[in-house]
Amino acid sequence: MDKGSFKSEISMINYNGSLIPSGSASLEVSNRGFQYGDGIFETIIFRKKEIMFLDEHWERISEGIMDLKLNFPFTKKDFQHTLLELLEVNGLMGQSARMKFYIWRKAGGLYTPEHHDAEFLLTADQAQRKKLLKFDKVGIADTIFLQKTAFSHLKTISALPYVMAGIEKKERALEEVLLLDHDGYVAEASSSNLYFLDLSNRIIYTPSLQTGCINGVSRRYLFKNAKKFDLEIKEVLWLPEELISDKISVYTINVADINCIQKIYTTKLGDCTEGLKLFEEIFSW
Fold first, then answer.
1. Phi-psi region of 120 (alpha: psi -120 to 50; beta: other; left: phi over 0)
2. What residue ranges of the chain have pLDDT lower than 50?
3. CATH number of this structure's domain 3-126
4. What is the sign, positive or negative, of the torsion defined by CA atoms of 234, 238, 243, 247?
5. How far apart (Å, rounded) are the C-alpha atoms in residues 112 and 95?
6. Which among 161, 121, 141, 92 is positioned nearest to 26, based on CA atoms?
7. The whole model's pTM is what?
8. φ and ψ at 255, to 5 degrees?
9. Domain map of the chain by residue range?
């Protein structure tokens, strides 16, 4: 067996700075991420020999560390090196890969922690680029509603609203569900931020963080870069019926997927063909 095949068959992980085989890791019962959801995570895509959206991922990690009052002595350079090191060890530098980076508070205490030091886990696996999809079977979630909190903009380890939205989507045999906030405004999709494109006026609308949606990486990237593509981006509070317009096309976007919604129940939305091409260009898909 040569060195390259060995790397591809044995997946390594980085646990608190140590590279170990993935099957050798174990979770302590006292782990605060497990017991209290006391942590954050990022899903990171490596494609075309590049860590996609590195700046935006580090920005969100930094916000999460600060908001959760964690001691995590990483710099952006440390973060980048840690990602590239694991990709290299797993033989993924020439492939597309999906990485997950988890940070949680060290064990100690009950609801009130004994300290603020953090631990981390990084995984990296091969991932195929997903196709751009057009959804025709889309509904509005009946059981899950979002609300703004001090942490709703973060991607926390406690992801119950999105887990339950995924279950509802599956039970109703839908391709996607839209989540509303408690005032009935459109907030998010089951695992993606939402974007409403008025291509004729070069405006992208996206739900306000006041709805309780996550401040996703794609969202951060668009607010920084929309002007480069002669686009304006605006936060809105829209009811579902405000999406029904020939001028507006609707998209669900995260770091791994760009999809569009063609129908909500039986109601047709604006055509998204040109919009998909535009977002594919913006996100270097």
1. beta
2. 1-8
3. 3.30.470.10
4. negative
5. 43
6. 121
7. 0.93
8. -70, -20
9. 3-126, 133-282
